[in-house]
Design a protein that fits this description.
With 217 residues, the protein is of the alpha/beta class. 50% of the residues lie in helices and 15% in strands. The protein is globular, with a radius of gyration of 17 Å. The structure holds adenosine monophosphate. Adenosine monophosphate binds next to helix 2 and helix 3.
């Protein structure tokens, strides 16, 4: 079962995708993570997208469609793929439909995680992750039990994303409303859209997504 998690930055797509990976053995395909990995490893493409990402703008359709194509044709995912942060434009949505058809697959459902903008600023500017194991934290909502030490792996190497600041968030939100929110209508018209309340607690959102997946099982 292949699904899309759709929502603005900070809606909780990455957090919920990781829960689905753990609970259902699905494979998370996050174009944001792929682009950050390309930057860290210093590839030509990584260098090209760095400034665009830091400014909060979208990188070209060509680049992200290429990344997804590479994964779809090389990764086995018996539990299905979770598309997280992709598609973000109508051209990407069309390309995803074509790519899935080419590998004999389809899209089971699109889950929109609905949140209001005021909550996003706090979620985004307060969030950070453990650089060793990837566990997510938040300044007020989820600090580690012992300050400076990761609950999960005991590491102390925490990281904040360069684009998780208020200026960049404004541009990312604008990009979401201009380029990505039309996908809500696009998938509604295809009969694929389901909506969950992204402002509920992490476990409540996970339960709502579980319910949405049962509708299409
Ligand atoms: P994310 O981790 O999903 O918030 O993505 C971080 C940044 O990577 C975005 O602000 C964009 O600059 C870029 N990015 C990630 N996914 C896409 C996409 N599907 N299309 C265009 N740009 C993307």
């Amino acid at each position: 079962m292949n699904i899309i998690l759709l929502g603005p930055p900070g809606a909780g797509k990455g957090t919920q995708a990781k829960k689905l990976v753990d609970s259902r053995g699905m494979v998370q395909l996050s174009t944001g993570d792929m682009l950050r990995a390309a930057r860290t490893s210093g590839t030509e493409m990584g260098k090209k997208v760095a400034a665009i990402m830091d400014a909060g703008q979208l990188v070209t359709d060509e680049i992200v469609i290429g990344l997804i194509e590479e994964q779809l044709t090389s990764t086995r995912a018996p539990g299905g793929f979770i598309f997280d942060g992709f598609p973000r434009t109508l051209a990407q949505a069309d390309a995803l439909g074509e790519l899935l058809a080419r590998v004999g697959q389809n899209l089971a459902t699109v889950i929109e995680m609905r949140v209001d903008d005021a909550a996003l600023v706090d979620r985004i500017t307060g969030r950070y992750t453990c650089g060793d194991c990837g566990e997510g934290y938040h300044d007020t909502a989820k600090p580690p039990a012992k300050a400076g030490i990761c609950d999960n792996c005991g590491g102390g190497n925490f990281k904040r994303r360069a684009d998780d600041n208020e200026d960049s968030l404004k541009i990312r939100l604008m990009a979401y409303y201009k380029e990505t929110s039309p996908l809500i209508g696009y998938y509604y018209a295809k009969g694929l859209l389901q909506v969950v309340d992204g402002l509920a607690s992490m476990d409540e959102v996970a339960a709502a997504i579980g319910g949405a997946l049962e509708n299409v099982d």
